[in-house]
């Protein structure tokens, strides 16, 4: 079974499961290691599947609201302003992702939908003494954003563009990133 087929099977198993499914159970079912499952889940998330981790396993979360991928560029000092702008306009920042030339796609789930969420994220980032994922790509990064309507997503995109943060995606990025 190839990676794409295995990831489709993971989604199928999560859709049918009445309760969270552990990484170990998915690994046994699919005949791979738990680490392969962790990698597959990361790829599924980057591909737009709402796979959430709980303390009892993975679940599939469906958000029916419109979703859009924005490519952005700015320095680390503008992260708070960018995230506040998005949530203040009714968006939820699902994740942050970079497309590194050597390491490929790397992403992290965020789930930021309010100023309080953003403040908590910024505090955790500061307390951890870790750097931003976008630091690996000179400030270039992507966010999947969901909102109540396409019009809200359009307005968020316009506001990001007005601030000079929105960057056009290349043909390659449009084809490979979702």
TrEMBL record:
Keyword Metal-binding: yes
Binding site for Ni(2+): 74, 82, 141, 143
Keyword Signal: no
Domain 3H: 71-166
Keyword terms: Metal-binding, Nickel
Domain (Helix-turn-helix type) ranges: 6-58
TM segment ranges: none
Gene3D superfamilies noted in UniProt: 3H domain, Winged helix-like DNA-binding domain superfamily/Winged helix DNA-binding domain
Any one Pfam family match given in the protein's UniProt record, by short name: HTH_11
Lineage: superkingdom: Bacteria
GO molecular function: metal ion binding
Protein name: Transcription repressor NadR
Annotated source species: Parafannyhessea umbonata
Lineage: Bacteria, Bacillati, Actinomycetota, Coriobacteriia, Coriobacteriales
